[in-house]
Amino acid sequence: MDTNSGINAIVHGHRNLYYGQRIMLRKGIINFECDTSLDINTRKKEGVVRGLGAAVTIIHPEKLVLGISSDYPYIKVFEPELTKKLCND
Description:
Order of helices and strands: EEEHEEEH
């Protein structure tokens, strides 16, 4: 976490993912990668033929991030407090 800038995480696209959102740690800052190909022609060209694409990343004020994607069968949940607890146990 970059305590000097006040930035805790970055949410961005520009990386087509075919299995839902992904969390990466880059230079000490959490990155939520949240991109998907939406239209059927692009998806066919990329070899993803599961219909239209859709994705949303919800950042809830209760310190919870939800990743929902038509390319992944489950909702991905990131709870920083739970993660912190698991890492400290």
